[in-house]
Predict the 3D structure of the following.
Amino acid sequence: MLMGGLALILDTQLSASAHSAMSDRLFETRRLTIELAAPLSAEDMVVQAMEEASPTKWHLAHTTWFFETFVLTPYLNGYQLFDEAFNYCFNSYYEHLGARQPRPKRGLLTRPSLDRVLAYRQHVDLALAQLLGEQTEAPPALIHTLEVGINHEQQHQELMLTDILALFAANPLKPAYRPPQPRSVPAPSEPLRWIDFAGGVYEVGHEGEGFAWDNEGPRHDVLLRPFRLADRLVTNREWLAFVADGGYETATLWLSDGWAAIMRENWHAPLYWESHDGEWFEMSLEGLQPLNLDAPVAHVSYYEADAFARWSGKRLPTEFEWEVAAATAPKQGNFLGTAALRPRPAEDEPNGSPRQMFGDVWEWTQSAYLPFPGYRAPEGALGEYNGKFMVGQHVLRGGSCVTPQDHIRTSYRNFFYPHQRWQFLGLRLASEVA
Amino acid sequence: MLMGGLALILDTQLSASAHSAMSDRLFETRRLTIELAAPLSAEDMVVQAMEEASPTKWHLAHTTWFFETFVLTPYLNGYQLFDEAFNYCFNSYYEHLGARQPRPKRGLLTRPSLDRVLAYRQHVDLALAQLLGEQTEAPPALIHTLEVGINHEQQHQELMLTDILALFAANPLKPAYRPPQPRSVPAPSEPLRWIDFAGGVYEVGHEGEGFAWDNEGPRHDVLLRPFRLADRLVTNREWLAFVADGGYETATLWLSDGWAAIMRENWHAPLYWESHDGEWFEMSLEGLQPLNLDAPVAHVSYYEADAFARWSGKRLPTEFEWEVAAATAPKQGNFLGTAALRPRPAEDEPNGSPRQMFGDVWEWTQSAYLPFPGYRAPEGALGEYNGKFMVGQHVLRGGSCVTPQDHIRTSYRNFFYPHQRWQFLGLRLASEVA
Amino acid sequence: MLMGGLALILDTQLSASAHSAMSDRLFETRRLTIELAAPLSAEDMVVQAMEEASPTKWHLAHTTWFFETFVLTPYLNGYQLFDEAFNYCFNSYYEHLGARQPRPKRGLLTRPSLDRVLAYRQHVDLALAQLLGEQTEAPPALIHTLEVGINHEQQHQELMLTDILALFAANPLKPAYRPPQPRSVPAPSEPLRWIDFAGGVYEVGHEGEGFAWDNEGPRHDVLLRPFRLADRLVTNREWLAFVADGGYETATLWLSDGWAAIMRENWHAPLYWESHDGEWFEMSLEGLQPLNLDAPVAHVSYYEADAFARWSGKRLPTEFEWEVAAATAPKQGNFLGTAALRPRPAEDEPNGSPRQMFGDVWEWTQSAYLPFPGYRAPEGALGEYNGKFMVGQHVLRGGSCVTPQDHIRTSYRNFFYPHQRWQFLGLRLASEVA
Amino acid sequence: MLMGGLALILDTQLSASAHSAMSDRLFETRRLTIELAAPLSAEDMVVQAMEEASPTKWHLAHTTWFFETFVLTPYLNGYQLFDEAFNYCFNSYYEHLGARQPRPKRGLLTRPSLDRVLAYRQHVDLALAQLLGEQTEAPPALIHTLEVGINHEQQHQELMLTDILALFAANPLKPAYRPPQPRSVPAPSEPLRWIDFAGGVYEVGHEGEGFAWDNEGPRHDVLLRPFRLADRLVTNREWLAFVADGGYETATLWLSDGWAAIMRENWHAPLYWESHDGEWFEMSLEGLQPLNLDAPVAHVSYYEADAFARWSGKRLPTEFEWEVAAATAPKQGNFLGTAALRPRPAEDEPNGSPRQMFGDVWEWTQSAYLPFPGYRAPEGALGEYNGKFMVGQHVLRGGSCVTPQDHIRTSYRNFFYPHQRWQFLGLRLASEVA
Ligand SMILES: [Fe+3]
Ligand SMILES: [Fe+3]
Ligand SMILES: [Fe+3]
Ligand SMILES: [Fe+3]
């Protein structure tokens, strides 16, 4: 989908070293990262839009540092660090691995230059190719760590795009990451339909052979009451009705912290919405575009999602309700691979099973991000990956329009603070069975 | 236990009007509030120690405003408001009831004076007596609202004492709320014993005739795995070992937000601990006292409790584990009624059932403060009491040494933000069954 | 003028020990402080309205600590400190004298109680009486330090009243420090008249026998160009015209820092102005009162004074222009002694000399608060009194309606930061001679 | 001195259009800006080091916008704006000219790209060449505005270098703007010599034909007392003695605001000093270099300069003392033209006249930045250039090692806030004549 000069530079050597499915996935992932960066200039790649975002160049380097640190150094004999200073520059938050560039100052790293970071990627990719070439029978721990590295890089692919959107949205010229694509005229979004699920004991969480994050396990039983789930995501049209009904001015609809947040931040609509001459627009990776009323609402905080649900007389689902429902839906949807780069209206007909469970927007759940019963973070630096964030955040499920499809599972748990909005975050309503 | 001139002023009229158990409890609660304030001067009562605390005078007035607003205005014909301006002054957070004095500025209310607030209490108490005298058969809604008012005032009794402690702790003279009491020499705290609980489906939450807060229901089933709970609270002696082992300097023991908090706030020990010449002291309602090593640790944040548990190789219990265990323990302990005003060492012998489940300190649980399945906040202003705080906080269970004993239930859910420390907050360890 | 029970308690012993003019002034000053506090309750006296204000009780104690520290300890043999902890509690900012209660937390000192602070005053007053009784020929250094102590206490008398005003203004009940007094109907304020002053070399600053602060010297020559000064202060009526003309919405009228301040703080009028139903009111020591249009405007920052002057096509005077003009005016005016407690319209007829130079409001000058040529701060702790504040502030001249008259001199230099407003701060226009 | 590919791109058309001294200076200034940027990558040019600094690209565009707005639009018939959106992007602080990119967010402007900004420069340079080619007799107002534009761009040349230093100092790799140059071994700095100046009336401020900023006038008489000035700047060696003597730990040496600043910011040495293994280094445009003990100290705030002077038993000079002394010294020194890019030790022998008055470091004076008598800001947007900053700042004199030499005059007044340090700011001692 995306094309750019940068995308080509790694092809030759990689194709030579690819000798297995794992290797293919590894280098395809590495290549895709470069492809996603291709529309950007070096200038675009160095700047940090805000504290919680990171520059593209930093993402390029950090994902590389990740392989160097967790794969090459322990597993490749004689591996030479590309640059010792990069541990300081590109360690994100691993306390086990020492001091690091403060997160709000990642955007000050005009050096190392983009060229040097690309050379770093090549250096590491070559070493990975060497490692995989040597290893006819890779030990399971190496295989697992490579999987972690691939999945880690996929997460940063999503972050790259959302961080670029944050940067371009803050620019008065409202640049587009790519030109707008023609869209089919959407059918008006049909009314919500509700799907009922029976109560009972369900198994949730990940188990089995495939890769999953530590926070998706242990697989365990949960006891659910009967519940009802909307068959599609909440749309911009529905959100507009909430705005028009004074949703953002009615204190009693909001959680106390939510009301404090919208007062403090002066929020009156989702992030990236702008009203000009009575018409609503939304900043997107295709620049400022008229709001697509039938598309799912995105860039809303937990506070807003919760207030909308209360205004609707409904509630948000728990992460387990979502997971149980998702097990009945095909794991397909508007992911990064569709190249839409925006949430899209539900396209298939209502069919009695939940639609848009995957892709489009991450779905806020009522569930706080906490450990599953029996969870213990792994030993060592990688144990910091997920476990130390288990306070103060909420779980989101299902992936978004900028998530790589093969990154997602039914048991996948994403997590953000209730005030955060810059990711593609939306919602689906739930309720009790009457 | 506590004596003071203020305590006597309401006796005459109240005893005359008391005609029932409800009435007795109501006026006894009202009287106890005054008794608790008795050791304080008007100066002590007007000042606000910090944003999250409130002045004693404000507590005295706010609890009175609560009865005026929710009981007298709707239920007593012809009731005259004591002062219309008091709705602004003493409304805490009810958006349904209009604008109010900003929370961080409650301490600026030198007017109305203490005398006028005491007159307000008398005015409202007399009207309550009149209402109860009239009502030979009070409607259930009135009875319920009276219960809410009593329980509300009990919560503020606890807050009064913790807010006074915060105020006195900030005073360089380290004043005592009351003179130190002689204590029995504690036996050295015996080693922790572990009590195992079987997995399975348990009923939790409140149901039945007695009063409970809306957030304790609906009663519902939960599915628990086998778990193991410490038979007593974590002690100061154990906490000192954590400090001595560098607990506050070891990033990898902490949740990410916790580490950020202790770095930002420069925490090196529980709130109110002070080290002088190598000896540890603790500020208490009896002034600055040598640390009682066998008493339960108090005034620790969720972050600290979690880090301690990790350092111990254990974890915090969930609120449901706690509730299931508590059902096996007598609902007695070191509450406000013991007049200890401080956590005490476990006094009874290890006996195979959990001790100190009630009183001493609120116990942090791993559970975020969220609605139970099927929970809906009541309509109207009282619906704001609990529901709108259901984000970002954690559940604590069991009550503390400044909680009135009859305020507590096995299903009682208290909640604080993970950084808060000024309440009597401690912990009990849990773990999986090996 | 003001009467209260507290005012009487020191009379007996003081009259016995008064033996000289100095002694009379000392104890009269000490008495006046108590008289000024008399309308206040203990509650009113303990609370701190905001960071830059102090509680009345703190003023009562701090002025006493000042005599204890700088007079009694060095000069009275065998003097016993009243309480050693008071150095920590009531040292304001003297680094020479060690650690102290942080300024923003002076309002947390509910202990020592007001009674104990009053006993402190008595203890120190008795010791001062003893010292003065012994000293038939007091050494000049003692005499000077006593003068410093008297003048210091006078400054705090003014601060007490402005800090109380700040406290009551923040109270939704808008209490009055004293009941409103009847006022004569003011004549409409006549147009400004301009008074010309010749250029040339003038002597400024203090010299001679009487007391002056170190920052008023050395007396030195300044070279002035011819200038023109308004014969009265800017009035509320004139300020209203500025408001009505969009003064607070016109960026180009403001200093850059001033515009930033009014945007940040959302200022649209002087501090303490409130508009109700199209009519303007002003919070005062007599409570919320209709704005007196002919009275001088008060409670404006330097930024506002400067913007008003620019809007008027004029400028603020320098401190030396003011001083030269003031030398031609009688040192009388609406000081604390008139008991007006508010700025008053100019009462005397225009007479070709500047009116209202003294009293009513401190007058902002264009002059930064900097040392005079040859200034050196005295040695020791008292050297911190004025010198260490010589950066970032502006000089104000002339005293206000809450300044004791005998505290003021033509050379007197007060100083505040350009954003501050809670004192009685106003302005007089100046300009070049055409 | 500095070489780079970017420096060449404008040469052709400029040499053709140069037809006069003014034109030469204009295009030489424009060329120099590009030359100064030449060592930087596009990445280096887009990032903003901190709020008070600006990105190089922004400087390149803003100086161009300045000519477009103040010269081309009013004076060149038919001039077409390069891009209307640039007024928003590159207006710095001119309220007359409408809304603008917030100063702290200048670094978010990854678009317009560097290429487009360079095209903007070409577009404007060509139009300027056309304007100058047409104007055989340019009107005085145009000539004056061109001068303003040249001087404005010179100021930004200095800011570009100091802002780049700030950016590289914040980078863990400590990049160098250019490679270190060999230096002659400095002679040990000889002791300070003092030069006496007589008191009396002196004329100060600018008058005459040459260009000066509005804030340098009106020229006027000042009356000075005899004073004494050090014949050279304070050195790093002397500053080290201050550090070693506990200067940064001794509260009584500091202005109150200064002490608060160093406590809050945790300052223990000048900005850019770093101590490694007991040796001091200084970050410079040549990267991290051993501290040159004989060079003038730089990157100190007013607070630090003032504390150092107090520790020395001396004081800072006033801006008029400085100006009177500077009139006796040749206007030459270590400016940008020496290409040292760092302060250098005094090289010439003590000779009874003040040395290092020009160049090396801006010299803090005791004088607040205030209008000269009779000053009025010009009408219109350019009137905002200097006048609206006349509060809260101090005057610095003499230029620095990154100031273009022909930008400076004896009457030149620079100004910064007392806490600022990122410019080349140093000091020279003064004192009274004994
Ligand atoms: Fe990462
Ligand atoms: Fe309450
Ligand atoms: Fe004082
Ligand atoms: Fe500029």
Remarks:
- The CA atoms of residues 343 and 360 of chain A lie 4 Å apart.
- The pocket of fe (iii) ion (ligand 1) is lined by residues A 62, 92, 152, 156 (CB under 6 Å).
